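Hey, I was hoping to borrow your eyes for a little while. A protein chain has come my way and I'm curious about its shape. Take your time with it, there's no hurry, and the full record follows here:
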Amino acid sequence: MNNDEPIQIALVDDHAMFRAGLIALLENFEDITVLFESSHGQDFLNKLENHQPDLIIVDLKMPHMSGQHLIVKVRERYPEMKIIVLSMFDDESVILNCLKELRVNSYLMKSAPPKELYEAISKVHEEGFYFNPHISQIMFEGLRKRKVAVQSNDIAKAISEREKEVLQLICSGDTNSEIAEKLFISKRTVEGHRKNLLEKTNCKNTASLVAFSFQQKMIAI
């Protein structure tokens, strides 16, 4: 990341030792700073009233207020807040609920390596989402089990060759800036193609676009 200002993080987890370890890890990165921490949801919400981080890291299993309940409250008060779930839960229904209903920007297992956590923070901050292959596969399976309103053949006909190139790179995890550089077009043009792809596929966000593309075999794997 090349931003002059460090990314401000807030985190909530009821395990003090885990929080301490996570803070120590994050502070090793020059472009990340921990704005505040909390051990439970209500304290976290109280602190959010006075401090606005760039993104938050949330555990799901916490006493008094679950991570899911906390995220609902955060979304009500701060709808554009970027949220990374860092959890031990590897259950498909839990993950899909977080992605589809709670609209989290990334879902990581607590067993994820530090490098991946850093990448997730970077991607979420810059592009708004990060999903590793494991989570992408869960998203794919979730979409496979429900009916898709628009047939893939019709969608394929509606998508231009340039949009297909952009879609391929989106599914590869490239940022708008990286796509622009590879295709020799402007970042704004990439953003326009991304918007068109969402409209043509009837997808609400980039996460569902990626999952839909894999499901319908719209890209080369």
Strands lie at 7-12, 32-38, 55-58, 82-87, 106-109.
